[in-house]
C-alpha cells in the first residue's frame, strides 16, 4: 500500500499537470469526443493511461491509419505506372529505392557503385545504415513482393521512431505532457511518415530536446550529432543553443554540447569517409548540384517567369538568406525582453531553412511538427498550419498526376500547384509569426503563464542573463518554484489571456 506521503506527492504532481482542455478552447471542444473537458481518462488510476501512455497509443493509432492510407499503392499502384500512386496520394520513395539503389541486388551503400547516373546512395550515412538494416530484414520472393516487404519492414522501424518522437515531445515539457498529442494527432505526420526515412533524424532530434530539458548537455550533443549523421537539418539546433548560452553565460555547457555533436558525427562518418570517400560525399555533392525542385518558392518564380535560374545562384542566395535569417533570430534572442525558450528558437531556425530551400519534399513537415508542438502549444494555430500542410500534401500528388496523365490532364494544373506551395509557405510563416510574437510578448506564451521560465530549458531554466542587447526583464522564478508556489488554476475558468 502506498504511504500517505507518496499519495500526497502523486496528487500534487497530478494537480501540477496542465490540461489543454482547461486552457485551450479548441482542445476543449475536441475533448467532447472522449468525455469532455475534465479529461475523464486522466483521472483513472491505471499507469497504462498516464498522459505519456495515451500519447504513445494515439501515435501508434495515427501511424497505423497512415499505413492504411498507403494500401492502394501497397496492393497495386506502386507497380502499375506512376499515375495511380499520385491520384491515390500514396506515393513512397521506399519501395522504389529498394531496387533503384541496389538493395534488391545486395549492393553495399557507399561502397558499391550503382548503375546509371546516381552512382552512389545519396543519403547521409546513418540513414544508409537504417536502409541497409531494413534490407537485411526483408524476406525473399519476387521483386514486387520484396519491395512490398521492404516498405513494411521500414514502416515497422519508422513506427518505433514515431512513438519515440511523440513520447519525447510529451516528456520534454514536464508539466505539459498532453502537448504531445499535437504530435501524435498531427494529420501531416500520419500522411508523410512512410514517404521517406526522415523519422529517424526526427526521433534522434526529439530525444536530444528531451535530454536538454533534463540538463544532460553531453547527451544532447551526442544525439544531435547522430541526428545530423541521418539528416542535415538537426545541426541547425546548435545555433539556438549558442545564442541562449551566450545570453546566459553558459559557455561550458555549449562547449560540451558541441563536443558531443562533433564526436558522435565523426564516429558514424569517419569509417565510411575513410574507406569509401566517393560514396560518402555523394549526399553533399547531390545536395549542392540538385536543381530547383518541388515545393519551393524558387519553383513558383521559374514557372511564372518561364526563366531558369542557375543552381549556383540559387545555392548562394538561399545560403545567404538562411544565414541572414539565423542572424536575425540570434539578434532577437539577445534583445528579447525575456530569454526565449529553446523550442521557440529551434522551430524558427529550421523553418527558416525550409522556407528558403530550393526543394520542399512533403515529408519535410516532419522536421517541424515536434518543434512546433513545443514552441507554440496552441491547438488553433497548430491546426491552421497543419491544414496548409495537408493541402500541400494533396497538391503535389495531384500536380504530379496532372503532369503524368498526358492529354487527359487529370489532376491539378500548374497554377493550382503554385497555390498549394503558397499555402504551405504562408502557413509556416504564420506559425513563425506567432512564435516571434510570443518571444517579444512573453506574457502571451502559454508555456510561461504559470510563472515558468523555460520548462524544457535544462541548465538555462531560471538562469540569470549574463549578456543582453538593450534592456531585458529579469527572468522569472525557476519552473519548479512555479509548480510549488502560487499558480494559475486553469480549471477555475477560461484562459485569462485567450488569443
UniProtKB/TrEMBL annotation:
Q: Please report which protein family the annotation says this sequence is part of.
A: Belongs to the glycosyltransferase 87 family.
Q: Where is the composition biased (Basic and acidic residues)?
A: 7-24
- Family annotation (InterPro entries): GT87, UCP010361
Provide one Gene Ontology cellular component: plasma membrane
**Which keywords does UniProt give here?**
Cell membrane, Membrane, Transferase, Transmembrane, Transmembrane helix
Primary location group: membrane
Stretch list, region Disordered? 1-24, 477-499
Mention one GO molecular function. hexosyltransferase activity
- Top-down, what is the taxonomic lineage of the species of origin? Bacteria, Bacillati, Actinomycetota, Actinomycetes, Kitasatosporales
Which cell locations does it reside in? Answer: Cell membrane
Q: How does this protein sit in the membrane?
A: Multi-pass membrane protein
| Organism field | Streptomyces atratus
Question: What protein name is recorded for this chain?
Answer: Uncharacterized membrane protein
Q: List membrane-spanning regions.
A: 48-68, 120-137, 149-170, 182-212, 218-244, 256-276, 342-361, 382-400, 420-440
Amino acid at each position: 500500500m502506498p504511504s500517505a506521503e507518496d499519495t500526497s506527492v502523486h496528487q500534487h504532481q497530478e494537480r501540477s499537470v496542465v490540461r489543454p482542455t482547461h486552457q485551450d478552447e479548441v482542445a476543449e471542444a475536441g475533448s467532447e469526443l472522449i468525455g469532455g473537458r475534465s479529461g475523464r481518462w486522466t483521472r483513472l488510476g491505471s499507469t497504462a493511461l498516464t498522459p505519456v501512455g495515451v500519447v504513445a497509443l494515439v501515435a501508434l493509432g495515427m501511424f497505423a491509419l497512415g499505413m492504411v492510407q498507403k494500401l492502394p499503392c501497397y496492393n497495386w499502384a506502386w507497380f502499375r505506372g506512376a499515375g495511380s500512386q499520385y491520384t491515390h496520394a500514396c506515393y513512397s520513395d521506399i519501395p522504389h529505392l529498394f531496387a533503384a539503389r541496389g538493395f534488391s541486388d545486395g549492393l553495399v551503400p557507399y561502397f558499391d557503385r550503382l548503375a546509371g547516373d546516381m552512382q552512389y546512395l545519396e543519403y547521409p550515412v546513418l540513414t544508409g545504415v537504417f536502409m541497409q538494416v531494413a534490407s537485411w530484414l526483408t524476406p525473399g520472393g519476387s521483386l514486387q513482393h520484396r519491395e512490398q516487404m521492404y516498405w513494411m519492414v521500414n514502416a515497422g522501424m519508422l513506427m518505433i521512431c514515431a512513438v519515440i518522437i511523440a513520447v519525447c515531445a510529451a516528456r520534454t515539457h514536464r508539466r505539459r505532457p498532453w502537448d504531445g498529442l499535437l504530435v501524435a494527432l498531427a494529420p501531416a505526420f500520419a500522411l508523410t511518415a512512410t514517404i521517406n526515412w526522415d523519422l529517424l533524424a526526427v526521433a534522434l532530434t526529439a530525444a536530444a530536446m528531451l535530454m536538454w530539458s533534463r540538463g544532460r548537455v553531453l547527451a544532447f550533443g551526442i544525439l544531435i550529432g547522430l541526428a545530423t549523421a541521418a539528416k542535415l537539418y538537426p545541426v541547425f539546433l546548435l545555433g539556438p543553443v549558442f545564442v541562449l548560452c551566450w545570453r546566459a553565460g553558459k559557455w561550458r555547457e555549449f562547449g560540451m554540447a558541441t563536443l558531443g555533436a562533433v564526436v558522435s558525427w565523426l564516429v558514424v562518418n569517419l569509417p565510411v569517409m575513410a574507406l569509401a570517400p566517393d560514396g560518402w560525399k555523394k549526399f553533399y555533392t547531390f545536395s549542392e548540384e540538385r536543381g530547383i525542385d518541388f515545393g519551393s518558392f524558387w519553383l513558383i518564380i521559374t514557372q511564372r517567369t518561364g526563366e531558369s535560374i542557375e543552381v549556383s545562384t540559387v545555392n548562394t542566395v538561399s545560403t545567404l538568406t538562411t544565414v541572414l535569417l539565423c542572424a536575425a533570430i540570434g539578434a532577437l534572442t539577445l534583445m528579447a525582453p525575456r530569454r526565449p525558450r529553446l523550442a521557440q528558437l529551434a522551430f524558427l531556425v529550421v523553418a527558416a531553412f525550409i522556407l528558403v530551400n530550393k526543394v520542399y519534399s512533403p515529408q519535410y513537415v516532419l522536421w517541424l511538427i515536434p518543434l512546433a508542438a513545443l514552441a507554440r502549444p496552441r491547438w488553433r494555430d497548430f491546426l491552421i498550419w497543419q491544414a496548409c500542410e495537408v493541402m500541400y500534401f494533396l497538391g503535389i500528388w495531384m500536380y504530379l498526376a496532372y503532369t503524368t496523365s498526358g492529354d487527359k490532364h487529370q489532376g491539378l494544373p500548374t497554377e493550382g500547384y503554385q497555390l498549394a506551395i503558397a499555402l504551405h509557405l504562408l502557413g509556416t510563416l504564420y506559425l513563425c509569426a506567432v512564435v516571434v510574437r510570443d518571444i517579444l510578448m512573453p506574457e502571451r506564451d502559454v508555456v510561461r503563464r504559470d510563472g515558468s521560465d523555460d520548462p524544457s530549458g535544462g541548465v538555462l531554466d531560471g538562469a540569470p542573463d549574463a549578456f543582453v542587447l538593450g534592456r531585458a526583464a529579469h527572468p522569472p522564478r525557476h519552473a519548479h518554484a512555479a509548480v510549488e508556489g502560487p499558480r494559475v488554476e486553469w480549471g477555475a475558468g477560461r484562459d485569462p489571456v485567450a488569443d
